[in-house]
Specification:
- This protein has 327 residues and is α+β, with helices and mostly antiparallel strands.
- Helices cover 20% and strands 28% of the residues.
- The strands form 4 sheets. Strands 7, 8, 9, 10, 11, 14, 15, 16 and 17 form a 9-stranded mixed sheet that branches. A 4-stranded antiparallel sheet has the order 1-6-3-4.
Length: 327
């Protein structure tokens, strides 16, 4: 029997006043997990229609066009399965868990990551997790990026989850990160206050904007400077997706090793072959963004006590800092 492939269908009406734009670029802003090349494939397979007719990838969308598209969805498990995956639990009581997530682990199942996630591990560890989120995200109050390491709080019941989420919403949670970024700062500490919005050229990325997007505030302090990099700590006053990574990249100081936001390019240092070789070796030590969610503090929803948890820098970031010190 042939295996059924699920599809997600989209119907998009191009608004009045929209400037002409190639349809393969335009649709990346609307279709989930779709790159321009994937859109071009859908168009070539006649899964995209404009005003009821097929078009080519270079078609320029116009105001009031009606675009209909079908996007195949990768099959996913009916429910998230428990998996025996080691967890670094910093604290646990009957209401919540503080987990030190390793780099490389996704917080919860999503497109192309249905196993090996933090949620899979948590379901093996405990049957008691909150259920406020949509299916597949039990207990998850907030997230950090796959390749960012550090502390997360997980709720065991809905009431605790709601009270923790309220603190995140009101920006009363202490969230300190530490990172290694390219370059040196003119001031040893400061505030980055720039709106963040989704990139128009790549929907998987974000960018700063003076006119649109959501308010984002990051406070930084330089802990140590090196020849072409800085070791810094950062406190979040807002919690936008990729906030620290985008804010630092906007200052031409992307996080070391961050391939998405320019952190794997040699931005500083001289052009000597020896220097390039050294930097390439350092990037080999740090094959992900050198960013760690080090400290997490909040008011415990049940005890009302202000609690604060701390974690050590992981070995890859510590090794990177040691190598930078020995220049």
């Amino acid at each position: 029997m042939a295996k059924l492939v699920k599809e997600k269908k989209y119907r998009i009406e191009v608004p009045e006043g929209k400037k002409k734009e190639r349809i393969d670029t335009f649709l990346t802003h609307f279709i989930e997990n779709a790159t321009r090349s994937k859109i071009q494939k859908l168009i070539s397979e006649k899964m995209v229609f404009v005003n009821g007719k097929t078009v080519k990838s270079n078609y320029l969308v116009k105001p009031l066009d009606v675009i209909e598209a079908s996007h195949p969805i990768a099959p996913r498990p009916e429910e998230t399965e428990p998996e025996e995956i080691p967890l670094d639990i910093v604290f646990e009581d009957e209401y919540l868990i503080i987990v030190n997530k390793p780099a490389g682990m996704v917080a919860h199942p999503a497109y192309a990551n249905y196993t090996g996630t933090l949620v899979n591990a948590l379901l093996h560890h405990t049957k008691k997790l909150s259920d406020l989120n949509e299916p597949g995200r039990p207990g998850i109050v907030h997230r950090i990026d796959k390749n960012t390491s550090g502390l997360l709080v997980v709720a065991k019941d809905d009431w605790t989850h709601a009270k923790l989420a309220e603190q995140f919403s009101k920006h009363t949670v202490e969230r300190e990160y530490q990172a290694v970024c390219w370059g040196k700062f003119d001031k040893s500490e400061g505030i980055i206050e720039k709106k963040i919005t989704r990139s128009k050229s790549d929907r998987k990325k974000f960018t700063v904007s003076s006119t649109e997007g959501k308010e984002a505030i990051t406070i930084y302090k330089v802990l140590e400077e090196f020849e072409f990099a800085s070791y810094i700590k950062l406190n979040l006053k807002t919690g936008r997706t990729h906030q620290i990574r985008v804010h630092l990249a906007s200052m031409n100081k992307p996080i070391f090793g961050d391939a998405t936001y320019g952190g794997t390019k040699i931005l500083y240092g001289n052009d000597l072959h020896k220097m390039k070789s050294r930097i390439q070796n350092l990037l080999g030590i740090m094959p992900r963004q050198a960013l760690h969610a080090k400290t997490l503090g909040f008011r415990h929803p049940h005890t009302k006590e202000l609690v604060r948890f701390d974690s050590e820098l992981p070995d890859d970031i510590k090794t990177l800092i040691d190598k930078l010190r020995t220049a």
